[in-house]
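Appendix B, Record 12. Input sequence as logged:
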Amino acid sequence: MKFKMKNFNSISELLEYTEKIKGKKFREFDKDKKLDVTSLNDKGLLGKLIETEFYKYPNNSNAKADFDNLGVELKVTGFKKNKRRKR
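Logged structural output:
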């Protein structure tokens, strides 16, 4: 898969772009249907999904910060799954 990585010149530019994710569901970014076939017990799954589909940043094991030019590491916080699961 080829990525056209988003390039941010400042933290404020990164935060402005990040505002676009508010109110979205993880499934909206799940073009490859990973949520359907991968265990939700994979603690990094949602972070990988946002990293690759929203920020267009390739999944890697690089020790550098995700947005190295800004000194910013991407973190996706946990969430609670509702008992009434909606799709």
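The chain is about 25% helix and 0% strand.
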